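[stage:ingest] chain + small molecule (5,6-dihydroxy-NADP)
[stage:ingest] validated
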Amino acid sequence: MLGNFAYSNPTKLYFGENALDNLAGELEKYGKSVLLVYGGGSIKKNGIYDKVLTILKECGKNIVEDAGVMPNPTVEKLYEGLKRARDGKVDFILAVGGGSVCDYAKALSVSVHCNEDPWEKYYLRFEEPDNEIIPVGCVLTMVGTGSEMNGGAVITNSNQKLKIGHVFGENVFPKFSILNPLYTYTLPKYQMVAGIYDIFNHICEQYFSGDDDNTSDYIMEGLMKSVVHSSRIAVNNPSDYEARSNIMWTATWALNTLVACGKTTDWMVHMLGQAVGAYTDATHGMTLSAVSLPYYKYILPYGLKKFKRFAVNVWNVSTEGKTDEQTALAGLGAMESWMKEIGLVMNTAELGVTEDMLDGLTAATFIMDGGYKVLEKQEIRKILKESMG
Ligand code: NZQ
Ligand code: ZN
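[stage:predict] done
[stage:export] tokens:
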């Protein structure tokens, strides 16, 4: 049965080759002092920085720059950005980059006017903001996280070996996001395919919960088929505009709250992946690909009906002459072949996980209860061990 929910998404999207033409009109709505947040320099190399800076200047903005947001943004970087934003008395935050830059911008937005330590308040105590929130806008350059249209803001505390995502409410969603598929052309293949798997897994995390006749599941099967189809084209020809734009659009819909409606949702692959990320600083999508199959094979008996449906509806597996379990396993087999075909990392050893980390990784994995099996700690350890390859 479809659960109870409220749905609304306040982020305005501008999609396509000319999407940046809408930036000036959006910026006019906000104050004069803009914090321009970006990563390690890709936007300077591919020219996006110059284009955005020109628009900010034409709009008469005072620009405060906050560069060097790293993949898997850290709490130390957040503290540094906080000082910069406070000193510059910023009215608006413009994030130009991937999920890390967008997430970081949202974390800053709730922290600048917060009198408490943001790590403790938002990431350890999971409290909601009760102070002024600075509005955020995004110009997206890397596809995968859905951060452009959601309230997620994942921050890593390397000292505490914790990578934690706070999913904030609508008041923290970006006010607008600019999605130009051409901006993703300069992504290295490793990042492109990591992003593709991130999209696919966001859908899996929401799909593998519940067994009912839920419209969200039909939407998700379509999204999964689209991402698999487009990924094959993009891997062979990274400048295929149709494939790159479909991937960008699918990423947004995979995690902008719509398909979660009426579902309990799982998120255990992300919890395992985030623990791996906290220990290795590996690329997010690859931490997910490396733990996925051991996890899904483990929970398959508890969600057999849905794994069978996944095999048939997403991977066109024939049921003829097969038990339900054989059909379900064939679905995971087809998924594994696709993952290898596009070049994903299939084990955590390749990401730097060693045997001595297993206890720490197990402790750092948060247990969620929306999937087919609420895992015990020793089951988590077993899956993590299996994921090493
Ligand atoms: O820093 P620069 O120089 O810009 O380089 C980045 C970075 O090294 C590069 N890049 C981005 N756009 C590029 C480009 N290189 C060339 N051309 C371009 N157009 O790509 C690298 C990775 O970027 P990053 O932003 O880290 O990747 P992604 O978008 O995958 O974001 C990952 C972060 O998002 C979090 C992850 O945990 C991780 O911290 N997530 C956020 C979620 C959310 N908000 O809902 C959900 C996700 O599950 C995820 O957890
Ligand atoms: Zn993800």
